[in-house]
Amino acid sequence: xxxxxxxxxxxxxxxxxxxxxxxxxxxxxxxxxxxxxxxxxxxxxxxxxxxxxxxxxxxxxxxxxxxxxxxxxxxxxxxxxxxxxxxxxxxxxxxxxxxxxxxxxxxxxxxxxxxxxxxxxxxxxxxxxxxxxxxxxxxxxxxxxxxxxxxxxxxxxxxxxxxxxxxxxxxxxxxxxxxxxxxxxxxxxxxxxxxxxxxxxxxxxxxxxxxxxxxxxxxxxxxxxxxxxxxxxxxxxxxxxxxxxxxxxxxxxxxxxxxxxxxxxxxxxxxxxxxxxxxxxxxxxxxxxxxxxxxxxxxxxxxxxxxxxxxxxxxxxxxxxxxxxxxxxxxxxxxxxxxxxxxxxxxxxxxxxx
Length: 354
Prior knowledge:
alpha/beta, seven-stranded mixed beta sheet, 12 helices, 19 strands
């Protein structure tokens, strides 16, 4: 029997696995995909990520990966009006998720976690004082389960705990050749059809994200194809939902982390931070539960710490969602200088933790 089974090997799951294994727990990490793989993400790491990465001992290895250094943010209204905000030195970098996630998974393996890729969880139930996990063609046992399997969490769905999601928008993401003279900047661009976020990720590539209502997504893809000289066959990764209620744990030995726990507005640069930190918090709870033998106390402490993690920060995501839902109104405010650079600097400073 494993002490902890973690479903999902993204940043939240791999971080949790590494910390649990470092503490001497027997850890199983289950992943549906085969790494390396890309994910729909803005690819940005803000300064809040680095303390967790330092505690993992991988900060320098992350900085050694191909990445883009981001020195300013350009807010671009419909029609082209631009408001620029400089970022503090070394405030934020962008790195492809295929590289970032693979490194974190490697760290979990180095710590002693057992990793099984191309493994799909099809059943899960608590019986005989342990979680019974049906994955591929076998049943696995673990004292604790950590669900790190994203906004469409299979664990939550199988347990009947996945909230109903909003389908008002869809997100697309891809990497394209970095345009000449793009520079070391993030572009947050409002368009008649929706929104686009762009950030250089190193290696001569640019991360391009699109967000729109389902009826407008093809028009937004056509805009991107013209802007970045893409063929009609160019491949996009898709993500939905972009909004749903948080998941509430149904058992004292079950922890939800990252997007499986709470979906925040994408492409604001904070998603990876929430994933890393919640994974670390769940590891601490798992270790406390097993060592102290008090599942209820560990669950209460995790719930309180997880709530504190988001407290005071979610208003930024709500503002971002409002802006993306109303690109024309946001553009009018930018063009009329109602949204002034000082306001944008304050919002940006909140996201980058300065």
